[in-house]
Every structure is written in structure tokens, then in C-alpha cells.
Amino acid sequence: MTASFDIDRISGVIFDCDGTLIDSMDAWNRAEAYLISHGQGPLSPEDMEAVRALPILQAAQIFHRYGIGKDPDDVLTLLDEALLGFYRNEACLLPGARELVGTLTTAGVPCVVVSSSPMRYLHAGLSRNDLFDTFVKVISTDEVGISKQESRIYHLAADVMSSDLETTWGVDDALYAIRAMRDAGLHTVGIYSCDETAESFDALAAASDICIRSLDELLQVHTS
């Protein structure tokens, strides 16, 4: 740990959604397997990492290159078949998510979501859990056309909150996102969910200011 998550010194927090706020990684793994079953074989590790970071239409274009769907729009239809019902009817918050976001907003710290998921999923999942309107803004890479691998999406999020970069924190379960946040000048919290997004707990910890396994841990240990 190289920085302390002290609410009194934080001017804004950028949250990922899937695997950070919402317990949806198993649903996404099932959806990816569903897509691959409609194609010509598994994606390369490089392409799999890319589809998890890119705006959803660009991800659909990669899936289509593997023979999935008649065209990228058909890939999006297949994804909706696999995921939209989950976000509307099943998606639950991960432990500590509601409490941490509530503590921050009560303290006057603005919060933003930055996610690669399309807005229809984000709105459905966060609204189902009465959290959507808590955020200053929910940003989908699909709508802004910027990947989570790019620093500028985090600059955009900080600007939305009128938050100085040096006092802005980012919370994400994906190693590539933590690295991009760090490159953008943010402090970072890596929340480990699985090796598929983090490579390993140790790899995520090495890239993050703070690394945890649950938002409960961050709330209990690193707030004042």
C-alpha cells in the first residue's frame, strides 16, 4: 500500500461496475461461453482481454471475426439474450458496495461509474439495486467511444466530478484498468475478483495503491 484511502482527502471516486459493484462476473463468463458456442473456437487471450475493455460494439466486431453472429449487431443481440435479463432480474451488489458508496456520498465525495458494459445493462443492474441515481454520472465506454485501456476516459470522469487527479481514486477489478488509472494520475484500489481479470491477486496488488478482496475491507480499514 502506497497511499491511504482517507475520505477527508478524497475529491472523487471512479468505480468500475462489473466485478466491483455488481456481482456479475459469472454471468459474463456464461455469456462469453454462449457466444463462443456460436462461433469457430475460443478467442485468443489478447482478444479476450480486448473485448473486456473495449466499447461493446468494438468487442462485438472482435467476436464476429471468430464467426460469431451474422454481423456485429447480431452479436449484440446474442449478448442481450444472455445478459439483459440477468441485469434486470438477478444482479446483486457485491458486499460493501452500497455501504461504501453511501459513506462517500454522505461525506460529500462525488462518485462516477466507468464501465465497458452498455448503458442498458448498467442502468438495469444499478437501478435494480437503487444505486444508479447515487452517482454523479454513469459512463459507458459504448457511449463515449473510449476504451478503459485509455487514460483519457478517467480524465473525463474526473472532470465530470470537478475532481483533481491527485485526489481522485479509481476502484476496479481489472489489471489493465488499474494500470490505465495509474497512468492517468489517479490513486488506485484493486479489488480482486478472479484471475481472468486480475491475472492474480499479487499482480493486482503490485499495480495498485491498495488491494482488497471485498469493498467491506476498504470501508472498515481504510476510511476515517
Please explain how this structure is put together.
Helix 6 links the parallel strand 2 (111-115) and strand 3 (137-140). The chain is 50% helix and 12% strand. Helix 2 (45-53) runs antiparallel to helix 3, helix 3 crosses helix 4 (72-89) and helix 4 runs parallel beside helix 6. The longest helix is centred in the middle third of the chain and has 18 residues, at 72-89. The mean pLDDT is 91. The protein contains twelve helices and six strands. It has 224 residues and is an alpha/beta fold. It has a six-stranded parallel sheet with strand order 3-2-1-4-5-6, sandwiched between helices. It folds into two domains: 7-23 and 92-220, 3-Layer(aba) Sandwich (Rossmann fold); 26-90. The chain has helices at 25-36, 45-53, 56-65, 72-89, 97-106, 119-128, 141-144, 151-161, 175-184, 195-198, 201-207, 215-221, and strands at 12-15, 111-115, 137-140, 168-172, 187-191, 210-212.
Shape: globular
Which runs of at least 5 residues are low in confidence (pLDDT < 50)?
A: none
Query: What is the third-level CATH name, the topology of the largest domain?
Result: Rossmann fold
What strand order characterises the main sheet?
3-2-1-4-5-6
Could you give me the name of the CATH homologous superfamily of the largest domain? HAD superfamily/HAD-like
Question: Which bin fits the share of residues in helices?
Answer: 40-55%
User: Which architecture of the largest domain does the CATH hierarchy give at level 2?
Assistant: 3-Layer(aba) Sandwich
* Count of alpha and pi helical runs: 12
Kindly state the mean pLDDT as a whole number?
91
Q: In CATH, what is the class of the largest domain?
A: Alpha Beta
Secondary-structure-based class equals: alpha/beta
Beta-strand percentage range: 5-15%
Terminal CA distance reads 16 Å
- Topology as a string of helices (H) and strands (E): EHHHHHEHEHHEHEHHEH
